[in-house]
Amino acid sequence: MGLHLYNTATRTLEEFSPLHPPQVTMYNCGPTVYNYQHIGNMRSFVFADILRRTLEWNTYQVMQIVNITDVGHLVSDGDEGEDKMTIGARRDNKSVEEIITKYSDAFLADLEVLNIKRAASYPRATKYIDEQKQLITMLAKKEYTYVTTDGIYFDTSKFPRYPDFAKLDVKGLEAGTRVSLGEKKNITDFALWKFSPKDGAQREQEWDSPLGYEQRGFPGWHLECSAIAMKFLGNTLDIHTGGVDHIPVHHTNEIAQSESATGETFARYWLHNAHVLIDGEKMSKSLGNTYRLVDLHERGIPPLAYRYWLLTAHYRTQVNFTWEALAGAQSAYNRLTNYVLSLNISLEGIPITAYINKFTTFINDDLNTAGAIALIWKLTKDTSASDADKLATILKIDEVLGLGLSVIQTHAEQEKIPKAVTELLSKRKIVREQKNFAESDRLRDEIKKHGYEVKDTSDGQKLEQI
């Protein structure tokens, strides 16, 4: 089965076919680094990691870019309010540059503990101001822009397909508005560039404005993604991802400005992950209902148990966070890691073709990670397969799931369990299956003489050093 992905642009499941196989270009909307990322934010990056690993499983070579938003993301999607970076700097009593470093480093550390592969680059918006100004110049030459007292805006009425991506009812939005549009021509128009205030209060982040305007300013939030994506990946991307909250505004605006500038399709496949809810509401910094990975750690829950929990649901399905649900996932993840450790690592196995084929069917069906995890548990109970082949199969599947099982197995190898112990363990497994419990007890005692204790669990034998 070829790889099929749900394309938000068409609202259908489509067979994936990149522009220039085997190369795949993929852009993932990154964090705004004015604060730590919460576990809801991190779902987008776990999802993007599974997507990348699945592409690589299908022998594609992925060029992945994840931007770092470090300017221009205002508190309102309506281009109003203060820049989040300024708010964060004031809250922490630091410079904007200091909090960029602090929260970017924290984000990258979170990626590492979640076993998320590093992207090719994490470009900061402030390092590509020239590219953003060039994009504005292109749009101005094609008469897609107009100027107000507070900035340079994109005229969405000149891009007839503007409502299509998010299925927007623009007339309904206009009829429902209860506030003045000010100088905006249309309710959906958005800022490409914001002018700094004229009151003399200089921003930490401001640059000479494009199009020859004397008043300094800074780029709008939506502009950076288009400019950076096209800088690194070309005018047309194979894949663009983000959270579902980006569909109606951010990604719709990216499409409008990019395609108006180049006349080409901006992204061929758009994929979006659903939210992590808490008490039925979206987890959000503004609501104050967030948890970070460090909060999970303080409760004894490792990051990979959180990753496991996310993968038990489809990425397009909302998940409701509770400590009870996460504890259940941690228990299951612990059982899985213990099972991997219990297998005979002294023998080299071969991945079982039937299971690998079934896994490929699951993961190529729009990243069905829940089906893949269920398949692993089915394999653990398959008495027809050898321990060595089971281990080889699980580790092969984990190349996509990224649950860190190969690291666990490597650590076990490094502990250098004596060959005599692994041989006794294998013999004991056989006699237990034959219900020869007297011999099983004798072998347990032999293992104990070597300094190891074996425990029988629902997932098989578990070996512990005394």
UniProtKB/TrEMBL annotation:
Q: Which residues form the tRNA synthetases class I catalytic domain?
A: 16-330
Describe cofactor binding as the record notes it: Binds 1 zinc ion per subunit.
Pfam families (alphabetical): CysS_C, tRNA-synt_1e
Which residues of the sequence carry a binding annotation for Zn(2+)?
A: C29, C225, H250, E254
The record lists ATP as bound by: K285
**Subunit field text:** Monomer.
InterPro entries reported for this sequence: Cys-tRNA-ligase, Cys-tRNA/MSH_ligase, CysS_C, Rossmann-like_a/b/a_fold, tRNA-synt_1_cat_dom, tRNAsynth_Ia_anticodon-bd
Family of this protein: Belongs to the class-I aminoacyl-tRNA synthetase family.
| Protein's organism | Candidatus Lloydbacteria bacterium RIFCSPHIGHO2_01_FULL_49_22
- GO terms, biological process: cysteinyl-tRNA aminoacylation
Q: Please list the residue ranges annotated as the Cysteinyl-tRNA ligase anticodon binding domain.
A: 416-461
Keywords carried by this UniProt record: Aminoacyl-tRNA synthetase, ATP-binding, Cytoplasm, Ligase, Metal-binding, Nucleotide-binding, Protein biosynthesis, Zinc
Q: Does the keyword Cell cycle apply?
A: no
Protein name according to UniProt: Cysteine--tRNA ligase
Please provide, in alphabetical order, the Gene Ontology terms of the cellular component aspect for this entry: cytosol
User: Per the record, what are the reactions this protein catalyses?
Assistant: tRNA(Cys) + L-cysteine + ATP = L-cysteinyl-tRNA(Cys) + AMP + diphosphate
